[in-house]
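### Sample
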Amino acid sequence: MGIISRGFRGKRRGGDERLPPGQYLVEDFPVLSAGPTPRIPPERWEFAIDTEAERTHRWSWEEFLALPRQTPTVDIHCVTKWSKLDTTWEGVSLDVLFEDVDTAAEHALVYSYGGYTTNLPLEDLLDGKAWIVHRFGGEDLEPRHGGPARLIVPHLYFWKSAKWVRGIRLMDEDYPGFWETAGYHNYGDPWREQRYEGD
């Protein structure tokens, strides 16, 4: 499995209770992508939630920016062993986007411009656990970091925080996404070191 990188070396923070096991602290923001960086003009961007009953809720860029926004400050942890603490984003909570979504589904498949997908239990996207963000550190989100908008699910390894997010498909059954199919763990809890299948 040549596409799986075992990680960067950075500054280790021994004894830091915010640093999951096996992680190293970085001050910069490493960029890891499986392919070329999609460049989506905001006027062509849209976000959709597709329910298991085949109902679609859709937002244009202007509609998305008109929604109530939050500025979460969170720690992020990459499966390649780097962690970055106190990252500040701006965006819309998934709780806001799901306000009018009627669903009994328990599983979600997040899909992105460029074809990337990742799967999560729906409960990991709600109750203040996840956001669609369009700004990082007070600046518009750069394409290399997932701009114009990306998903942030900080309590899971960062590959679950899909860049260039385009939508969420709600499902009755769980289906693995891009990295999960390539051997990464299906869930990805950094505190349990769920990096790869079998961890």
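The longest helix spans residues 61-65. This sample (Sulfite oxidase-like oxidoreductase) is used throughout the tutorial notebook.
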